[in-house]
């Protein structure tokens, strides 16, 4: 024993480490290669032979020989042993009879195996395929193809009917073993080097993966999103085990790290057990520093360890010597749990220096300044920033595609790979976007190896685009499969323009998942499915299989198009329509500029917001061929006049519906009509400024210039993709024609202006045309979130009180916060703010129109600059309130009479309707529940529970509850996860409404309820229930969640008082 090792022993003794000697040893006189150690015996291999020893009686039980080449894997299930070799031979042994039960031959070496009951999963080297066998009968069941390189580990979860596998291609795939038409469920993509092992913490739906890049990633199993990455390991991950609420990760230097999720959804980390080349076993507890044990005695490296029948530790080394230790691990863990109320990780002072160097989480203060070395130069940065952020702050260029500062880094494109020094002159690769800096970190961004890797990553993305296009064009593609039907039905021409606002070109998609993230995390819609990106861009785009985008719950906000780096998702480009109309020249071309468009147009020419004056913008539009250029801020003033008056009328009417919601955002209107139709009475009836503009142009202005309205072609320039849909609403024809003929985004008009090579420096300034050209500051505020309310309050207050408003600027309504509120006194009436309120503004996009889906794709810090440009414009205008704008007063005097007049209602107001396809509960559903109510009386109390992923089931539940209440039946409505399930046994009547999500599972807001119901210990004999399942009957798992509920409730003794209902929204009767 050398002096350094003795020093380490002494250090451990100082901190309370107990050095123990073995109870006994058994020498098997064999140097094993593979070892299976159980409580009673040990099975080990040497070369091509298998040995079984009784370790209690110190005797050999059997010697098994069949393989002609080196044995690579051994598995055991009770008395069945499975071995495989480097030539692809799999042998099934009967350990009782000591004979071969069956032989299975693969075409190449076995790379991984796992078993469940009589099912064997084995992966072959070439090709990289997982084979599924019934090893009792020898029948091959199926095979799984999808990995591009060698498979390293496979694991089967029978409860989820899911098989997991990891590969040298850097991915983990979740395979469906129940659906043979669509085997790939999810792909976990975040490592850029081979994934060598993984483990699953099933109770928390967590997946841990370890890679040759010396990182470990924790994933959310439900959506394949990375939760946390662990870095700075000193050696390669070799094995992972999930044990209850902890994960043990083993490394090839013998270290084992323990990771435990805590209540804050972060992770506590400590060194748990190590066994290495120093021929010892060290045991540490993650819960308490009191259990530190050093098992000393092995003379060669420890191969594996287990527990004996008595719970003591048993270990075996490379010499074949078995040691029994007086260490009862399981008992010690239980005692620690009783004594320790709170888990506690050891501090750096409590851990030996050698372990600290191997630990992955050194505590780090937020925003602490640290020093890093990039390409040999010293820089400083905040400790919570990524390498990519620090490099860009210091002018160091690193390419990236999938990264966006407002989104969680997924590291899917691999373009931002850098090298990080681990030890002297030893480097590992890491994705700069997802790796936080730490003090002393040495980073290389410009080596030939890195440049080559980045170049290859980009080439792979280009190849992915090309191969996807070829797949879509391939006429021999199997159209009988579900995936094939999807291609045939939706994407014959690559592009889906079905909703008229957003265009999806799948041949450009690189699976970066930006669109899915923004749709889910920022917009909260989850229309674009991140989990399905593993199957390719097809289902990335739509969660609803085989449907056009127009048939989904998409509200056309267009945020996905703003975040898309390759233009695979963009606004529905209609510049060619305008060009054709200009070429025809048979109509008067009239255009209106939206408030935010006049600010952001400069960004299309790489200038700061507001850098191009609106007067130059007007001149540029005339150069394009427009006859009249008007200002939509003028019609925004009209909107305020009408909306402010409507608000006052509602406040005075005791029977009016309050709160009143603004209606100028068409994406918000889409959301209400599709997902929340019960809010329709709350919407203001006033049209958006765009639609008021079209109605006024084709009535008032047409009459003024003595031209037939059908000879006017009305165009708007907007920040919004949903405006493209709005112009085609049936209600938007109050002029007798389609009020607005074409809506173009800022990006589209920027493209057209670039095509004519406009020179902004030399262009002369001209003013808007009359009479729709003079606006107030209130109209300009429509561009920013909170601006509509601020403008409306200014006017409503002065109209109502006949007093000058005490202040013009409401700082509490300004800025980019998601939720803002204020209180305004209207004589004796007082609006109460957030809890009880009278007026609410809703905008679908971050920052309002300034962050709209049709705005330029600019950098992250652009929104504050845009909003400041709006406020500067508002301050500069001669009129600050809509009702003080003389041009507005003149149009009321000459044409509209007064706000809310008969002609105003006809031209400037509209109606809304539920979207029957997606959210309206069909009459047969209502009839069914009326039938249910025939067995109820007003003395009954009904519990209504719902599980909903997109809002359809939620709307059905709300409608059912309303019907019950209207019938004087007491009804209570709960989201399933929010209902205290312990109260269920006291209920009498329960109605359950649910959709089925993804591969037959429950919606996210019902998963916990389902888990609790499965473990429910009370009988439900007194409950009468009915279940209603919603969905699409073409979906493979249609109403699967409803059926599971039905089965479980019957098991618990509940009585079904009405046969399960199934709502198929694709059926003719809904």
Automatic annotation (TrEMBL):
Residues 942-1070 form the Flavodoxin-like domain. Residues 368-449 form the 2Fe-2S ferredoxin-type domain. Residues 500-530, 545-574 form the 4Fe-4S ferredoxin-type domain. Keywords: 4Fe-4S, Iron, Iron-sulfur, Metal-binding, Repeat, WD repeat. SMART domains: Fe_hyd_SSU (SM00902), WD40 (SM00320). Pfam families: Fe_hyd_lg_C (PF02906), Fe_hyd_SSU (PF02256), Fer2_4 (PF13510), Fer4 (PF00037), Flavodoxin_1 (PF00258), WD40 (PF00400). PROSITE patterns: 2FE2S_FER_2, 4FE4S_FER_1, 4FE4S_FER_2, FLAVODOXIN_LIKE, WD_REPEATS_2, WD_REPEATS_REGION. Gene3D superfamilies: 3.10.20.740, 3.30.70.20, 3.40.50.1780, 3.40.50.360, Fe-only Hydrogenase (Larger Subunit), Chain L, domain 3, Iron hydrogenase, small subunit, YVTN repeat-like/Quinoprotein amine dehydrogenase. WD repeats lie at residues 144-185, 188-229. One of its GO terms (molecular function) is 4 iron, 4 sulfur cluster binding. InterPro entries: 2Fe-2S_ferredoxin-like_sf, 2Fe-2S_ferredoxin-type, 4Fe4S_Fe-S-bd, 4Fe4S_Fe_S_CS, Cytosolic_Fe-S_CAF, Fe_hydrogenase, Fe_hydrogenase_lsu_C, Fe_hydrogenase_ssu. The keyword Phosphoprotein does not apply. It comes from the Eukaryota. Belongs to the NARF family. This is Iron hydrogenase.
């Amino acid at each position: 024993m050398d002096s350094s090792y003795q020093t380490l022993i002494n250090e451990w003794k100082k901190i309370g480490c107990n050095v123990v000697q073995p109870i006994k040893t058994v020498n098997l006189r064999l140097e094993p290669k593979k070892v299976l150690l159980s409580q009673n015996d040990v099975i080990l291999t040497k070369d091509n032979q298998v040995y079984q020893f009784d370790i209690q009686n110190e005797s050999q039980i059997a010697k098994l020989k069949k393989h002609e080449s080196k044995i690579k894997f051994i598995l055991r299930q009770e008395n069945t042993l499975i071995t495989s070799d480097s030539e692809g031979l799999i042998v099934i042994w009967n350990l009782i009879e000591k004979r071969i039960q069956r032989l299975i031959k693969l075409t190449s070496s076995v790379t991984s195996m796992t078993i469940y009951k009589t099912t064997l999963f084995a992966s072959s080297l070439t090709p990289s395929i997982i084979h599924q066998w019934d090893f009792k009968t020898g029948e091959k069941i199926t095979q799984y193809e999808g990995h591009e390189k060698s498979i390293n580990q496979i694991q089967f979860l029978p409860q989820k009917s899911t098989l997991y596998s990891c590969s040298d291609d850097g991915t983990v795939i979740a395979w469906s073993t129940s659906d043979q038409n669509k085997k790939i469920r999810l792909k976990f993509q975040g490592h850029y080097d081979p994934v060598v092992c993984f483990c699953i913490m099933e109770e928390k739906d967590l997946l841990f993966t370890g890679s040759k890049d010396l990182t470990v990633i924790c994933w959310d199993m439900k959506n394949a999103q990375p939760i946390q990455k662990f870095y700075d390991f000193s050696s390669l991950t070799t094995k992972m085990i999930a044990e209850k609420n902890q994960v043990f990760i083993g490394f090839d230097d013998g270290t084992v790290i323990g990771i435990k999720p805590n209540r804050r959804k972060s992770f506590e980390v400590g060194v748990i057990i190590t066994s290495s080349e120093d021929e010892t076993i060290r045991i540490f507890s993650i819960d308490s520093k009191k259990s530190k044990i050093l098992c000393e005695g092995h003379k060669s490296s420890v191969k594996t360890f287990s527990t004996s029948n008595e719970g003591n530790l048993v270990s075996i080394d490379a010499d074949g010597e078995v040691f029994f230790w007086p260490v009862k691990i399981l008992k010690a863990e239980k005692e620690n749990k009783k004594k320790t109320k709170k888990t506690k990780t050891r501090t750096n002072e409590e851990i030996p220096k050698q372990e600290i160097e191997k630990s992955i989480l050194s505590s780090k203060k937020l925003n602490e300044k640290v020093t890093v070395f990039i390409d040999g130069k010293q820089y400083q940065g905040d400790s919570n920033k990524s390498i990519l952020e620090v490099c860009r702050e210091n002018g160091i260029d690193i390419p990236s595609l999938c990264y966006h500062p407002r989104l969680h880094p997924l590291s899917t494109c691999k373009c931002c790979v850098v090298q990080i020094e681990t030890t002297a002159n030893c480097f590992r690769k890491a994705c700069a976007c997802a790796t936080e800096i730490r003090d002393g970190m040495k980073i290389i961004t410009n080596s030939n190896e890195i440049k080559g890797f980045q170049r290859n990553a980009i080439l792979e993305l280009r190849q992915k685009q090309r191969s996807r296009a070829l797949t879509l064009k391939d006429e021999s593609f199997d159209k009988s499969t579900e995936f094939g039907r999807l291609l045939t039905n939706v994407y014959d021409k690559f592009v889906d323009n079905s909703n008229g606002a957003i265009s999806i070109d799948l041949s450009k998609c690189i699976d970066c998942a930006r669109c899915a993230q923004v749709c889910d995390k920022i917009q909260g819609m989850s229309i674009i499915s991140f989990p399905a990106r593993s199957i390719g861009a097809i289902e990335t785009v739509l969660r609803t299989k085989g449907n056009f985008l127009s048939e989904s719950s998409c509200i056309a906000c267009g945020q996905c198009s703003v975040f898309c780096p390759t233009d695979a998702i963009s606004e529905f480009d209609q510049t060619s329509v305008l060009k054709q109309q200009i070429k025809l020249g048979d109509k008067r071309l009239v255009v209106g500029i939206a408030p935010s468009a006049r600010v952001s147009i400069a960004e299309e020419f790489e200038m700061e917001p507001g850098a191009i004056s609106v007067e130059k913008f007007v001149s540029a539009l005339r150069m394009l061929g427009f006859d009249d250029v008007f200002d939509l801020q003028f019609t925004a003033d009209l909107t305020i006049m009408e909306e402010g008056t409507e608000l006052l009328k509602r406040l005075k009417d005791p029977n009016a519906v309050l709160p009143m919601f603004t209606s100028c955002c068409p994406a918000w209107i889409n959301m209400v009509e599709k997902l929340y139709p019960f809010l329709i009475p709350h919407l203001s009836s006033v049209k958006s400024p765009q639609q008021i503009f079209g109605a006024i142009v084709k009535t008032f202005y047409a009459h003024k210039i003595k031209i037939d309205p059908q000879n006017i072609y009305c165009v708007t320039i907007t920040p919004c993709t949903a405006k493209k849909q709005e112009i085609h609403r049936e209600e938007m024809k109050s002029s007798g024609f389609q009020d607005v003929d074409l809506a173009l985004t800022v990006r589209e008009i920027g493209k057209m202006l670039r095509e004519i090579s406009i020179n902004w420096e030399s262009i002369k300034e001209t003013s808007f045309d009359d009479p729709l050209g003079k606006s107030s500051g209130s109209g300009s505020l429509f561009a920013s979130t909170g601006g509509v309310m601020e403008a409306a309050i200014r006017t409503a207050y002065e109209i109502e009180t006949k007093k000058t408003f005490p202040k013009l600027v409401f700082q509490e309504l300004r800025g980019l916060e998601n939720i803002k509120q204020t209180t305004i006194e209207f004589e004796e009436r007082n609006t109460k703010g957030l809890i009880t309120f009278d007026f609410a503004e809703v905008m679908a996009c971050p920052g309002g129109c300034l962050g709209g889906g049709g705005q330029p794709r600019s950098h992250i810090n652009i929104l504050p600059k845009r909003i400041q440009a709006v406020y500067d414009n508002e301050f500069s205008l001669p009129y600050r309130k809509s009702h003080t704008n003389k041009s507005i007063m003149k149009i009321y005097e000459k044409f509209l009479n007064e706000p809310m007049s008969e002609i105003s209602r006809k031209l400037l107001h509209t109606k809304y309707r539920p979207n029957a396809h997606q959210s309206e509960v069909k009459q047969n559903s209502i009839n069914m529940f009326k039938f249910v109510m025939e067995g109820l009386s007003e003395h009954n109390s009904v519990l209504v529970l719902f599980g909903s992923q997109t809002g359809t089931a939620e709307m059905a539940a709300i409608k059912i509850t309303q019907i019950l209440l209207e019938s004087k039946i007491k009804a209570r409505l709960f989201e399933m996860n929010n209902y205290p399930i312990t109260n269920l046994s006291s209920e009498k009547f329960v109605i359950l409404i649910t959709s089925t999500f993804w591969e037959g599972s429950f919606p996210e807001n019902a998963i916990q309820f389902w888990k609790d119901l499965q473990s429910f210990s009370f009988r439900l004999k007194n409950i009468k229930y009915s279940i209603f399942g919603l969905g699409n009957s073409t979906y493979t798992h249609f109403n699967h969640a409803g059926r599971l509920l039905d089965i479980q409730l019957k098991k618990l003794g509940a009585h079904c008082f009405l046969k399960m209902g199934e709502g198929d929204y694709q059926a003719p009767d809904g």
